[in-house]
Write a structure and sequence with these properties.
Blueprint lengths: L1 H40 L5 H9 L10 E4 L4 E4 L4 E6 L2 E6 L16 E4 L2 H4 L9 H9 L3 E3 L7 H12 L6 E6 L3 H8 L2 H6 L1 H4 L3 H9 L14 H11 L15 H7 L1 H24 L3 E6 L11 H18 L2 E4 L1 H4 L15 H14 L7
Parallel strand pairs: 5-6, 5-7, 7-8, 8-9
Antiparallel strand pairs: 1-2, 3-4
Length: 369
């Protein structure tokens, strides 16, 4: 009898525990679903500090605009994807073509090919407000953008090699920005910067096949689409809030990467080697190469002039040695606060429009045209 009572008691306790666990699970699921709904309906609730982590699509998780190639450790934009981009309070439609670039369907690729980072991609603005669009619509130039957020010369060189293998453009236009030197050290190991294996030791045919057929996102990672997950990741990875005012005399890290001789020298040598190789390859195909330093003066990063001068001197030297055009945009942005997105620094519609006018004027069509 006692055994029967004990068994019944344990069974009752088990049922109560199971019921409590079920209530806890349902409550947790309801709570997470409620937070997810709030994040989607009232995105401002997270505040500016965590909004980028929650709403940006600059990642290779499900819901992001990228997929990652393991061998090169490069991100490629997902082809034929339409989603909303977000950063620093600015939102835009991100739509890619069949090759994974931000161009309207049917955009010709036999004129100008544009390579660059988020400035040229059109971060923060619609495609109809980008330099590539204005070159086509206002100046009648066939302009195809292969620019992507975060790219440096490493990614741009790889994309150019892939493009030259199958496209026949008349001109290749590569934009260099102030933060490229700093970013290079984040993407490449020191021995990769020194050795530049992408020149002679990367199988571009295999890479082209891989990026044409990216792996589909597995079901296992679909939870990463959730805003609540992105908020958790943002909270987990966020640096502590600053406790003191920033040092007004401290240089921006992108300036240090150029002005510090020890950091500048290996990346400068990489630029000499890679741009020299790209110049030889384009010249052999009858393609004009131009390099544009996207020089904004001090408009975005204070105290930027010395670093931009040093970068321009390096590019001009490489251009003279390899017979390609080198240009600087500093004059077109002087005294133009309306050229830059508020609280962000990327180009506005007006900034892109001025850049398109500059390119059309300074990079004329080949003589045959």
């Amino acid at each position: 009898m006692r055994a029967t009572i004990g068994t019944a008691h344990r069974s009752s306790i088990g049922r109560r525990l199971a019921g409590a666990a079920l209530v806890a699970v349902v409550s947790l699921a309801f709570g997470l679903a409620s937070i997810e709904a709030v994040l989607r309906l009232a995105p401002g609730v997270v505040g500016a500090r965590f909004a980028n982590a929650v709403f940006s699509t600059y990642h290779d998780d499900p819901g992001g605009i990228y997929f990652r190639d393991r061998e090169t450790r490069m991100n490629f934009m997902r082809p034929e994807l339409a989603t909303r981009g977000y950063w620093n309070g600015h939102a835009w439609l991100h739509r890619t073509d069949a090759d994974g670039f931000r161009n309207p369907p049917g955009t010709a690729s036999d004129g100008l090919l544009l390579f660059g980072d988020s400035m040229i991609y059109g971060h923060g603005v619609e495609e109809e407000e980008t330099v590539a669009h204005f070159l086509r619509s206002e100046h009648g130039r066939a302009a195809y953008s292969m620019a992507r957020q975060g790219d440096t010369l490493f990614q741009e060189y790889v994309l150019a090699r892939l493009a030259l293998a199958r496209l026949r453009p008349e001109q290749l236009l590569l934009f260099v920005f102030l933060n490229d030197f700093e970013d290079m050290t984040a993407y490449r190991k020191p021995e990769q910067i020194t050795g530049a294996p992408e020149i002679d030791h990367l199988d571009y045919a295999e890479l082209a096949a891989r990026v044409r057929d990216p792996e589909a996102d597995g079901l296992r990672k679909q939870y990463r689409r959730l805003r609540v997950w992105r908020l958790y990741e943002g909270l987990r990875k966020a640096p502590p809030a600053p406790t003191a005012a920033p040092d007004p005399d401290a240089l921006h890290p992108s300036l240090v990467a150029i002005l510090d001789d020890a950091r500048f020298a290996p990346v400068a040598d990489y630029y000499r080697r890679v741009l020299g190789d790209l110049a030889a390859r384009t010249r052999a195909r009858g393609i004009e190469l131009s390099v544009v330093l996207l020089d904004l003066g001090d408009e975005v990063i204070p105290k930027a002039i010395p670093a931009q001068d040093r970068l321009h001197a390096l590019l001009a030297e490489i251009g003279r040695e390899n017979e390609f055009r080198v240009l600087s945009t500093r004059s077109i942005y002087a005294g133009c606060p309306e050229c830059f997105l508020a609280g962000d620094g990327h180009l506005t519609r007006e900034g892109h429009r001025r850049l398109a006018e500059f390119v059309h004027r300074e990079v004329p069509r080949p003589a045959a045209h």
